[in-house]
Write a structure and sequence with these properties.
Shape of chain A: globular
Number of strands of chain B: 11
Distance between the termini of chain A: 41 Å
Shape of chain B: globular
Oligomer: heterodimer
Radius of gyration of chain B: 13 Å
Number of helices of chain B: 0
Distance between the termini of chain B: 35 Å
Number of strands of chain A: 11
Chain lengths: 110, 113
Amino acid sequence: GEDVEQSLFLSVREGDSSVINCTYTDSSSTYLYWYKQEPGAGLQLLTYIFSNMDMKQDQRLTVLLNKKDKHLSLRIADTQTGDSAIYFCAEDTGRRALTFGSGTRLQVQP
Amino acid sequence: NAGVTQTPKFRILKIGQSMTLQCTQDMNHNYMYWYRQDPGMGLKLIYYSVGAGITDKGEVPNGYNVSRSTTEDFPLRLELAAPSQTSVYFCASSSEGLGNTIYFGEGSWLTVV
């Protein structure tokens, strides 16, 4: 089976960079995703990376993938208070549904 | 653009009652999903469907039933509500199951007392 693990909490100051980490166990994952959940809302797709890539950049977001260690990270540059949310890592192993981690709560202090 | 719409947004049920969570999408997606999210946890897949007339169990299907009579609708039924079903329920859809964006509804908060 597969399991996706994330640290539960991260606190940063406004303007700093945030790095949220994720580990997964299923080496057959083809796509890996980052979703953002704001309080009382559903999940919104932030970005994703295909398994044959090791980095993807999208404005303030940088995704790094280390397939050997099964490690995925999301870096948010110049973190803002509006970035405060729960961030979920998810993997797509081709079994028709995503497997989610338990989420990392990002708190941005002014 | 409506996207994925879930109703109701909030509901309190008594133990043993039944209810249906409605989900509809207007993107003509073949794949639809029901997830539950318990406090401090990730999402667990309850049921999914790859097209009208086809449904399959996910990770935590016990206590739930689904149907998919149309492409647009994927209702989730709780037959005998139990306190363990207190959770936030998310419906989602995608055009294909692999590598395509999954769109989520805003969630349904269900409390069983």
